[in-house]
Amino acid sequence: MLLRTPKYDLREHPNVYEPSEDSFLFLDALEHEMEFLRRLQPKFAVEIGSGSGIVVTALTSVVNDCVYFATDVNPDACDATVETAELNGAAVSCVQMNLLSNFRDKFFDVVLFNPPYVVTDPSETVGRGLNRAWAGGLQGRQITNQVLHNLNTSLSEKGVCYMVLLKENNIDEIASLMCKNKFRTEIVIERKIRGEHLYVAKFSRIS
């Protein structure tokens, strides 16, 4: 079964990141993981920085009986996410917040994150505008590291996190750091696109 790309319409949301190759790579990764996710039987799932909302909306078609959340610092993106979900007959609650700051610990069985991964000056990672969708600061990991360092408290005991990473983010270093934190790192899919070498990594607890 192929994972259908959800319908979306961002004409009223010019400050929301338009789905691009990284977004579609993420959808391909979820398609690859469909059987695993169904066996996991998640009860709570969230996409951080949901933007257009196509990724979390796609996930709703994979797993039933799951409560879906999304977060974004951009209020326009929150509106776009809800609209995308509704356009596809899905239910997603989107809350404006920084990452997962307002949720309680060990809550989510699935966390999705297509972070701002481009290597930039750290000053470009602030604000609520469109730059927050791509500006990653030092090593492109200024925001990514915040999520990775908090996975132990964000994920349930059986939880998994799927994250888009760029080669320049130094994936070997990330894997080493996560191993020290008792997390396994697996590469689900990778693709070279327009000068970028992208990966979707899967993080899960080492039992």
Indicate the percent of residues in helices: 25-40%
Strand content: 25-35%
The residue ranges in which pLDDT falls below 50 over 5 or more consecutive positions are: none
Arithmetic mean pLDDT? 90
SSE-based structural type: alpha/beta
Shape: globular
- Reading side by side through the largest sheet, how are the strands ordered? 3-2-1-4-5-7-6
Could you tell me the radius of gyration in angstroms?
16 Å
Oligomer designation: single chain
Q: Number of DSSP strands? A: 7
Biggest β-sheet description: 7 strands, mixed
Order of helices and strands: HHEHEHEEHHEHEE
Helical run tally: 7
Give the N-terminus to C-terminus distance in angstroms: 31 Å
Tell me about this structure.
By secondary structure, the protein is of the alpha/beta class. It contains 7 helices and 7 strands. The chain has helices spanning 21-32, 34-40, 54-60, 75-87, 144-149, 151-154, 171-180; strands spanning 44-48, 67-72, 93-96, 108-113, 155-166, 183-193, 196-205. The relative contact order is 0.16.
Short description:
Strand 2, helix 4 (75-87) and strand 3 (93-96) form a beta-alpha-beta unit. A 7-stranded mixed beta sheet has the order 3-2-1-4-5-7-6, sandwiched between helices.
